[in-house]
Amino acid sequence: MQFTTPAGRNPIDQLKVVGKPVTRVDGPLKVTGNARYAYERHEVVPNQAYGWILGATIAKGRIIQIDTAAAEAEPGVLKVLTTLDRDPVPPGFRATVHLFGGAEIQHYHQAIALVVAESFEQARAAAHLIAVEYETAHGRFDLAAEASGAKPIADRDSPDSPIVDRVGDFDAAFAEAPVTLDESYATPDQSHAMMEPHATIAAWADGTLTVWTSAQMIGWHREDLAHMLGLDKEDIRVESPFIGGGFGSKLLLRVDALLAALGSKATGRPVKVALQRPLIINNGTRRAGTMQRIRLGATRDGRLTAISHHSLNGNLPGGFAEAAVAPTRLLYGTPNRDLALKLAILDLPEGNDMRAPGEASGLMALEIAMDEMAEKLGLDPVEFRIRNDTQVDPAKPERPFSERHLIECLRTGAERFGWSRRNPSPGAVRDGKWLVGLGMAAAYRGNLVTPSKARIRLERDGRLTVETDMTDIGTGSYTILAQTAAEMMGCPLGSVKLALGDSAYPASSGSGGQWGANNSTAGLYAACVKLREAVAARLGFNAEDAAFADGMVTSGNRSVPLAEAAKDGPLTGEDGIEYGDLDKRYAQGTFAAHFVEVGVDSFTREVRVRRMLAVCDAGRVLNPITARSQVIGGMTMGVGAALMEGLAVDRRFGYFVNNDLGGYEVPVHADIPHQEVIFLDYPDDKSSPMKAKGIGELGLCGVGAAVANAVYNATGIRVRDYPVTVDKHLAEAPQRA
Ligand code: MOS
After folding, report:
1. Which of 156, 190, 353 to mutate to test the pocket of ligand 1 (most atoms within 8 A of CB)?
2. Which of 549, 584, 619 is the last residue of a domain?
3. What pLDDT, in 10s, does the model give residues 95-131?
């Protein structure tokens, strides 16, 4: 199905099932332990052997030799593979490092050997007997120290120009502006810290490979495996039906899958491999830390006339820039703009996508700057943002937003949160020993449209089976796809069976960039349209006027049970959604306003988040329960980004020191108070026939700044270097509380 003109009225608009607060259809499997994750797929293939990965203990240089004799002599060891056994293979899709092969070391904990043994313990014990001789080269590990050598670089998604966005005359407008701000902000390297590690079981049969793994994008994993193993992708099957979180870490193929495949090939046994937690952090990808400079110029009545946002991050040679200035393109309507990215070379583990790549880091800076500017102007921060709203792409005024209700997000949030009770003077409100502050931020995240296919079958018994390689990374894909099928075919939710996450099924959008929900359901919508046509033809209806509801197909005064259509054999509908240029003609975005109340201990400077509210404008909400879960998960991650998360770089040896979940701190339940989420629910007829948009990344965007702004309002101490930890307060805090 081509989606080239705005959606008209369609069967989804009935909202009998879609839009309803349905609990997760996969919930019972999850809570009873019957949803099997990659490493626990004991049932799929017998005789599984265990692999243990050895990571390099230098960050840059080369391997002179590897002695595996002692490891090979250990009991239970089936095979030791080393990186020297294999030529380097160029990086996979959107990746920078080579995963396994050759003597060169690009980053710490790069995989250099795999031990395969009868048991996990035997593999691990043997791996520690491998002796490696290195030649160490000088590595660059300190972003600030490399800043002077940094080069302008394009945003990878708009590769035309190293200057991301230069409109009007920023320098002149900034020079003339009566009120200006020029500040610098920093965000640290972050880890995805998902619960389930990267893990794979691989087995070969007749020259074909099957991997049971944990992948957000089935198609990308399959193609990269084909590339790295020199296989035809048709000879590889990738299965990933349940995933214990990803946050972007599982978009791209990682070494667990490659090594499981190689280990299995070398031993003739199925082999399972997981990344140890330290390797997740030092062998996986990170969200790159940034150093950002923001300059704002405004009129005295609070209209932004000039905006400059420059962001620097480091990455391996050939790596991407974190597109932190991306949200600044579209959030506020400013005539003179100067946005740019710079990249320095750092020999740290690869910087790549993590939830809301670009926006999450950029808004952590931009939305503090907006708070600071509002204060300079003597304006309420909500009002300041409202004054600078835009309904068109500021760089292309002929391109309107498809739907944009940021002002309503801001106003609704302010009212529901009791914003009018905020004291604008920082450090003025006390509750016993607690200094109390309110903060807010606006948020923007793009809505990405991408093709997605599905197949749906009406079985003889009237039940429906949906097949697509769409993944569910904990987001609720199973549930919203079941709702979509039930709505389109007029069936109860319980009669829809879902088969997801398997490359044997039609290729979907996958899960990433908050595009999964809208695109995968739109692909299924297209397949359902085909099935409705087949059903109508079989029953002698005109597909155009047949209504599908309550298990019946009805036209005029004739009504036939849906199941009748399949009584002589199943009927199948298979199709996908493909997009025209509606995302070019219209800026498609998602918007939010975040409000936060914190208490800061006046003695210790400990920050406690007391209340949070998000108001989201993200198209039609397909399911308010799963959507809310996405947003509160994002808000929680935003609290982590604001107050806790940061990878500590060992600048001598070039690795992340806090490489486990004890050292890399994320919020726990006790850190998170009551969270409220409000959806404005404006269907977007330019986004897809579902009229939905993304929500999973929007929930994180802006949260960090809202927390930081609340801390400022509580204390009067402005921390511009995340995370906002106690030490950064104590330096400026008064000697007496
Ligand atoms: Mo997302 S960072 O595209 O999973």
Report:
1. 353
2. 584
3. 999 999 999 999 999 999 999 999 999 999 999 999 9
